Amino acid sequence: MSALQLNDIYLARQRIEALVRRTPMEHSPSLSRQSGVPVYLKLESLQITGSFKLRGASNAVAQLTAEQKTRGVVAASTGNHGRALAYAASRQNVKATICLSHLVPGNKVQAIRDLGADVRIVGQSQDDAQREAERIAHEHGATLLPPFDHPAIIAGQGTLGLEILEQQPDVAQVLVPLSGGGLFAGVALALKRANPQIVTHGVSMQRGAAMHASLAAGHPLEVEELPTLADSLGGGIGLDNRYTFAMTRDTCDHLHLLSEAAIANAIRHAYREERLVVEGAAAVGIAALLEGLIEPLGPIVLVISGRNVDVEQHLRVLAGADA
Predict the structure, then answer these.
(1) Nearest CA-CA partner of 102 in 140, 76, 75
(2) Is 313 helix (H, G, I), strand (E, B) or coil?
(3) Of 91, 131, 198, 295, which is most buried with the most CB atoms under 10 A?
(4) Is residue 69 a contact partner of residue 93, using CB atoms and an 8 Å limit?
(5) Phi-psi region of 288 (alpha: psi -120 to 50; beta: other; left: phi over 0)
(6) DSSP3 helix / strand / coil % (the chain, rounded to 5)
(7) What span, in angstroms and rounded, lies between the C-alpha atoms of 62 and 60?
(8) Beta carbons within 10 angstroms of residue 279's beta carbon
(9) Nearest to 99 by CA among 75, 65, 72
(10) pLDDT tens across 135-169, in order?
């Protein structure tokens, strides 16, 4: 499957145990009624920086050598990875430079600045931001920590999978937001090694889902990045992808793409029925259930990946606008 092993995830948990939050698993009466089977929400939206990304970032920074720490870290991000890396670096006294495209919402840009990171805004896509991060790494000797395609990042995200297994041991299906694949690959590795019968669903948006296009083509593709409510799922997977493409291909049982209207409806559902503020990327699993895309085999666990939605956008969606 990959060079990454289940033991890497257990070692990651030891490293980050004091740095991240063990997030709650809560039963959803409304979605259980909708689906006809028990549905649970893994609330990674309650993680310290508001998304699952803190797990991988904390694990990666913890493994840096003393010399690497003095040179700092650099990364491209659609927002949440940058926020998590800025936080993890600040906790471990490491300088962080975060490269973002102009598509990243202003609330996420400011949150990264507030954590003390050096922010660079370049281009109109995640790929543009990635090229700038690579330039900085080459010229200044900073360690490049990508958002997903890195063993330490994947292993850190995989700790979420361990928690799912411990909190809901009889889980039958797990729905995971899918973008670059770091979260999906780590969680699916943990789940499948524990019980290959667990059904894994990758969930994304219809507008610019790079992993879906790449899997369909059989190799990594660069796709046009489009505005979407699920902005955290935007960006390419990297044409030289080394880990997450193959891991996702080997562990993803089903892949679903949701319309903007379905994602907006799921954001509204999360707020009105679950009393949760979630970003579009975190709502895609709810959307897949509400759209009737998932077979009624339970218990089902939805990974609610983050809450870092722009406040004005959230209000517009709640008011009935889909953007």
Answers:
(1) 76
(2) helix
(3) 198
(4) yes
(5) alpha
(6) 50, 15, 35
(7) 5
(8) 31
(9) 75
(10) 999 999 999 998 899 999 999 999 999 999 999 99
Place of tokens 């709650």: 24
| DSSP per residue, 178-219 | -SSSHHHHHHHHHHHHH-TTSEEEEEEESSS-HHHHHHHHTS
| Predicted model pTM | 0.92
Q: How far apart are CA 35 and CA 291, in angstroms?
A: 10
Q: Is 79 helix (H, G, I), strand (E, B) or coil?
A: coil
Give 243-290 as a 3 state SS string: CHHHHHHHHCCEEEEECHHHHHHHHHHHHHHCCCCCCHHHHHHHHHHH
Q: Are 45 and 52 in contact (CB under 8 A)?
A: no
Domains and CATH numbers, the chain: 6-51+150-318 (3.40.50.1100), 54-144 (3.40.50.1100)
d(CA 263, CA 261): 5
Q: Bin 79: left if φ > 0, else alpha if -120 < ψ < 50, else beta.
A: left
Q: Please answer whether residues 270 and 302 qualify as being in contact, where contact means their C-beta atoms are separated by less than 8 angstroms.
A: no
Residue 222: predicted pLDDT: 86
Of 290, 264, 95, nearest to 175 by C-alpha is 290
Neighbours of 253 (CB within 10 A): 13
Q: Are strands 39-43 and 25-27 parallel, antiparallel or unpaired?
A: antiparallel
- How far, CA to CA in Å, does 175 sit from each of 33, 37, 44, 73, 161? 17, 14, 13, 31, 11
What integer is the mean pLDDT of 244-248? Answer: 96
How does the average pLDDT of the chain come out, rounded?
93
Distance CA 19, CA 12 (A): 11
Separation of alpha carbons 199 and 173, rounded Å: 5
- Give pLDDT tens digits for 60-116: 999 999 999 999 999 988 778 899 999 999 999 999 999 999 888 888 899 899 999
